[in-house]
Predict the structure.
Amino acid sequence: MPLIPDSDHRVSPLLVAALLLAARTFLRALGLTPPAEADVLAATGASRSRAYELRNELLEWLPMLLRPVGRPPGEPAVPKPSRTAEISATALRFVMDHPGCVWGAKRRGYSDVFRIFVVELREKYGDLDLVAFADAVQVPLGTTEEWLRVGRPVAPSPEPRAAVPNESQAAGLHVQTLLNAFQRWRGTFTDFCQHVQHHQRVPFGHARIATILHACGVRPLERRPGRSPDEAALRGAFQTFFPGAQWVGDGMQLPVTVDGKRFTFNVELDVDAFSAAIVGASLRDEEDAQAVIEAFDDGVETTEQLPIALLLDNRPSNHTNEVDEALGDTLKIRATIRRPQNKGHVEGAFGLFQQAAPDLVLSADEPSERARQLAWLVLVTWARTLNHRPRKKRGGKSRVNLYRDTPVTDDQLERARQELRQRQQIQERARETREARQDPLVRALLDEDFQRLALDDPDQRIRAAIARYSLDTVVDAIATFEGMRKAHPPTAPRDARYLLGIARNIAHAHEAIPITEAIIRDRRAIRDRLLADLDAERDRIAASLPDGHKRLAALIDRALATDRLLDRLVWLNAACDFVLQQPTRQHEHLARSAARRIHAAFRLSRSERHFAAQLLLRRIWPLD
């Protein structure tokens, strides 16, 4: 059966999907309810990536379909050729003097040096039309506007020249050519390798070039972290006892299409941890407390006994009073946070279901109820078939055989009950300890900001998790969260869990600061050669730049130009010390200037720029 009915227009399903996705933008602007993205892709059968590419092309061509009535507008006044030619010649000379500052063909990239050059050149030719100026420097108009909108960056100070090794350290003319070319390079490392290979005739590969630059101390090696050993080291770490000792419960969304309408139900499963048998199931409109209770009751009815413990994830609906009353004597254990393999038994069952289940499509008079009945029949049939299927790893026994025929002694029953109860008590004591460590001031601040930002946290679990961090961290996290809302209103995060993630990342960054500062103090005590050179460079800057703004700019540029965290912290601390030495009324102005310069350094990643700016502001206005 085709996914899209035939039509006289012979429109491709992919084009229909792109058209519907493009219409979603205008429907939201008019206050109308647009179709869901998943519904459009499911109905048309189109791939997501190709549909969005075609949607973007449609949005670009759409304004050209309707032409205004009357004569077309006249051509804009062309500026004097001499001025644009002068700008183009200046830009060409700059690119020739800074190889690699512009790279790419269809999608170009620009270094910080070239961006600052264009901004300063615009100040010189401020009376020229911006369209003509952008065309003269060969930078797209939108990119030029964005550079001018961010703020006026100050020209960076000359970077310190890397020490060129002598002949005993770097043998060969090619190595000297590499070092001389890399000192003046302002582009990416891949483009640099292609440049020296094709234009400088250096017969080295990328790996060897990186090794030589690293050995000479001008570029650190960047290695991938590799695969985490957790997958192999923690395999089989889940402790099982015997059938019926512990069940694992979780929910999955199940879509059903009836008469062209798509319905989504929640499938709640309870799986025995020892035998992997599916003991209980529930099918409801959403994953809530009643779904947990129905699946648990169905499992008790199937096995005719209560399990010792039930493992559930940390979803709030799984830990309500109704669930606790329904479990009775069964212990409720929380799954380990950020460890999905902790519920591997039920997740594996969901994976098998998705592999075996067909598309649930039905046409009936009552779509919602017929869809529920069909889903229930398929679920029951699949579960019974899976439970009776022999398993090679278990000696040919099925899940039903393992669950019913495995003998359990009274000693095993009591030992499992004690260990599971002990595990539950450990979790409860840990939760009570975390709550006792919460700072009342931090908790009061969170209560006020959660209400002001309209964040949903009915059981206050997220608030309790954030309150374990310091006041300094919480203030920075709330400011970052609120700033992201103001900067990107349509796509800004609205979930309180996003605020928890921000606080966690900032706390990790804050922990690294005192550790590194302690290393700096220890290394200065033994007069490390590197720090001695940095101190000498800082004294030279102070002597040669009496102007405050230029000195601050030079210190910030040194911090942004280095790839070593130790060097960056030294220069940032020097910039903070300089700001604190100035009158208090100038602190805010100097801090804004330094932060604007930091955020203009696109050679650093977004997280590195935020880290540098936060360190600067924390030192100037400490809260602890």
